[in-house]
Amino acid sequence: MLILRSLVFNAAFYTNIIVWMVAGLPLLLLPRKVLLRYVQLWARATLWLLRNVAGIRAEFRGVEKIPPGRLLVAAKHQSLWETFALLPAFDDPAFVLKRELMWLPLFGWLAWKADMVSVNRGAGSRALSDMNARAREVAAEGRQILIFPEGTRRAPGAEPAYKFGIAHLYGSLDVPCLPVALNSGVFWPRRRFIRRPGTVVVEFLDPIPPGLPRDVFMRELENRIEGACARLLQEADAELAAAGGVASSARTGRTAA
pLDDT tens across 193-234, in order? Predict the structure, then answer.
């Protein structure tokens, strides 16, 4: 049953995203915010699809901690899930994404119109300065910059690998940084088609004020996110154990009875 539900959801998910992208092409001629609201609507529709087909619910905690206006958002990255599910939580979000994604047909055109922050990872140190300059332009419009500080998806419980690019952004933007913890990788594992029923929990943590030394900021960010993620992973294991008698300890690559 799990495999069948996962197959049905994946087929529906990728068909749905293509349909929404094609239907959204006329919005390239309209103001950016019109497209953004359309994308946020797609994100909500996808969460509905995930809940009703794959049995994966979403719970957002600490929403009241999100400051208004200019903001740097640093989220844990375990799954494809957070690349769309976080969008409706913010008024005017802009993801930091690799430049190659901007070259994709449909997606790249829409991301360009949505005015995302692209990064040329092959440009070395210049990539950081270009990213900072671009992010400052976007933040000056009162937007929220969303970045995954580890740069790529990490399995739940894997050794953290925070990149220093987040510290450069923090120092350059001089805005609060909102840490975001989650446990999405337990229910939507990276590089697998299985979707495990359960509750993905996102927790918005207390914002880190601007102005801290970069090394202090990095330690504080990692400690807050990793500590909260460890707690959320325990919750996920407990939910899976209660549902099926087996807890998925993806943190260690083992299963615990």
Answer: 999 999 999 999 999 999 999 999 999 999 999 999 999 999
Please give the C-alpha separations between residue 81 and each of 44, 168, 176, 188, 196, in angstroms, as whole numbers: 12, 26, 24, 7, 13
Residue 221 near residue 179, CB atoms below 8 Å: yes
Please report, for residues 12, 160, 220, the alpha-carbon distance to residue 152 in angstroms, rounded to integers and kept in the order given: 25, 11, 20
Crossing angle of helices 125-139/165-173, nearest 10°? 40
Q: Answer whether 57's CB lies under 8 Å from 198's CB.
A: yes
Residues 117, 97 contacting (CB under 8 angstroms):
yes
Residue 129 banded pLDDT, cuts 50, 70, 90: confident
DSSP state for residue 153 in the 8-state scheme: -
Complete domains list, the chain, with CATH: 2-256 (3.40.1130)
How far CA 45 is from CA of 16, 37, 48, 86, 202, in Å, comes to: 9, 12, 5, 13, 18
Give the DSSP H or E segment for 133: helix 125-139
Rg (CA), the chain: 18
